[in-house]
Amino acid sequence: MTDNGRKFSNSMMEKLYEKFKFKQYKSSMYNEVADGLAETFNKTLCNLLKKIISKLKKDWQERIGESLWASRTTHHTLTGVTPYSLVYGVEAVLFLKREISSTRMAVQEGLTTEDNVKLRLQELEAL
């Protein structure tokens, strides 16, 4: 989604849209669909912020990152997946899930092959 700026409306961008099969949507000052989506997301974000900010409500700018993370890593009913997985193609690894050892995390953390084999065997035995 773009505004009506010239940088998004030119032949080079149009070729790019065609090559990657993008659909270009332009937004103006008032667009019912775009405004509705923004309002829905803003309402969700405000509700999340209300749950985590202090009673004085002065720390919202410090906590907005947590609210956005919560929104991006929560399964949405309409799509059935998280926004994070739609953007990056994998599910986010939440810190609380890291306590359970997994082969994927072992590889990412750079364990040796021998340690990785031991970890896989432990996972198989746990099944």
UniProtKB/TrEMBL annotation:
Biological processes annotated in GO: DNA integration
GO terms for MF: nucleic acid binding
Residue ranges annotated for the Integrase catalytic domain, each copy included: 1-91
Coiled coil spans: none
SUPFAM superfamilies xref list: Ribonuclease H-like
Stated name of the protein: Integrase catalytic domain-containing protein
Organism encoding this protein: Cucumis melo var. makuwa
